[in-house]
Design a protein that fits this description.
The complex is a heterodimer of chains A (210) and B (211). With 210 residues, chain A is mainly β. Chain A has two helices and eleven strands; from the N terminus they run αβαββββββββββ. In chain A, the strands form two sheets. An eight-stranded antiparallel β-barrel of chain A has the order 1-2-3-4-5-7-8-11. In chain A, strands 9-10 form a two-stranded antiparallel ribbon. By secondary structure, chain B is an alpha/beta fold. The chains are: A mainly beta (210), B alpha/beta (211).
């Protein structure tokens, strides 16, 4: 009788595919493709009350276009899956009502952001960068009581600040390994939850389309 | 394929493999963990004011809100025995159903087809079709919906145990009031290996239910 629900990563994957197709078709001068694997950590008591450990299923991908020599603007899609299961407890469901259940919290965030990146050095094997983004966060919040769930999809504002290093593959290569950290601002006002803010670390790649 | 594309697609493959997809909670639940136990009680009821009880000698089978008959298979017998033991441990005295018990206990196995949602409220709307008040010696009486009816929606089979107030039926306007309900749902809820534990779980979260 276990029920399956639609996999919520389909949406960001479709968006990623669209980005790829669009970017490959454009191959605009200076356009840069970024993709990274993310590990994200819930912050704040509200989020940590639902999930208190790291999410190891996450990525970001996007394009950035140079508007100045070191400044790029772009579009980014991200995805993070948070999950935690709690041992069986009896929960009050109001006066005269109790539920005993194993509670599992499953939260997916997929922020679609307009981004700005600034790279401090144009040359060298270590190129620090900072970035910021703002946009829409597609959130699926699904709390299971035993095998019974009630998924809720929402969209909220999202913002991200990040910093890291670009490690070019060679002195002349535009392709670089991209590592860094980020703080992700994710307001969420439902079920007594204040926010789904998190910070994360990422490692990936930046590839220019020349 | 140029070197840049190898890097690009290699990185994409790794990132997609590591970073995408969702950890499905259903794949991380045992059958025991899949089950939930819900109890509702009338907050105005004084459970210590009742002395005697009688448990129905069979279980009603309800399919999509339709009475499908009575049953006494191994699981049903196990549940009847477990309920009896629980109430005896809590200080109530078991009597014959013809001996005017203060409390009557009805048990139902509720099934729904996969396409039809079964609401807890609907279950009580048709209650007198599963359990005629005559069974307990109260012909012509109606049933009160129990406390907190309608709070839940079931979407699969469930075990339902209803504790009815016969002692005050006349004082309640010739209505038999449900003062406690226990419901178990989830994987293998009707398995004989789980019946005793399910009843124990329902009673363990109902400490107020004692003489």
């Amino acid at each position: 009788m276990k029920r399956r629900i639609q996999l919520s990563f389909a949406r960001p994957m479709i968006a990623l595919a669209l980005l790829l197709v669009t970017g490959t078709a454009l191959k605009a001068q200076g356009l840069q493709f970024n993709a990274a694997y993310n590990i994200n950590f819930p912050t704040g008591p509200s989020f940590r009350n639902l999930v208190d450990h790291a999410a190891f299923k996450g990525f970001t991908a996007g394009f950035a276009y140079p508007v100045m020599s070191r400044l790029r603007v772009g579009l980014s899609i991200g995805y993070n899956d948070y999950y935690q299961k709690y041992a069986r407890q009896v929960y009050s469901n109001g006066p005269g009502s109790d539920i005993s259940a194993v509670v599992s919290n499953s939260i997916q965030q997929a922020p679609l952001l307009v981004t700005v990146d600034y790279t401090f050095l144009k040359k060298g094997l270590l190129r620090p960068y900072i970035g910021a983004g703002a946009g829409i966060n597609f959130i699926t919040f699904d709390q299971y009581l035993g095998e019974f769930d009630n998924p809720v999809n929402s969209t909220y504002f999202a913002a991200r600040g990040e910093a890291g290093l670009l490690l070019p593959l060679s002195k002349t290569s535009g392709t670089a390994v991209r590592i860094g950290g980020s703080f992700n601002y994710a307001p969420y006002k439902k079920y007594g939850i204040d926010d789904l803010n998190n910070w994360g670390v990422h490692a990936g790649i930046s590839v220019p389309f020349h | 394929m140029c070197k840049k594309n190898v890097w690009l697609w290699g990185a994409l493959l790794i990132i997609t493999f590591l970073g995408s997809c969702r950890k499905d909670p259903l794949n991380h639940l045992t059958n025991d963990e899949s089950r939930i136990y819900v109890t509702n009680f009338d907050t105005t009821a004084n459970f210590s004011s009742y002395s005697t009880f009688s448990v129905a000698d069979s279980v009603a089978v309800v399919q999509d809100n339709q009475f499908a008959g009575r049953s006494l298979n191994a699981f049903d017998s196990q549940v009847i025995l477990a309920i009896t033991q629980q109430l005896l441990q809590r200080g109530y005295q078991q009597v014959n159903s013809k001996s005017n018990p203060d409390l009557a206990i009805n048990i139902s196995r509720v099934y729904t087809s996969s396409t039809v949602l079964f609401s807890y409220g609907d279950y009580w709307d048709y209650y007198d079709q599963y359990w005629d008040p005559y069974y307990w010696g109260y012909p012509g009486y109606d049933f009160y919906d129990p406390y907190a009816v309608g709070s839940y929606t079931l979407n699969s089979g469930g075990l339902e145990i209803d504790l009815l107030d016969l002692k005050n039926a006349a004082a309640n306007g010739n209505k038999i009031k449900g003062i406690w309900t226990g419901m178990a749902q989830g994987e293998q809820v009707f398995s004989t290996t789980n019946g005793m534990n399910e009843v124990a779980a329902l009673f363990s979260q109902s400490a107020y239910l004692k003489k």
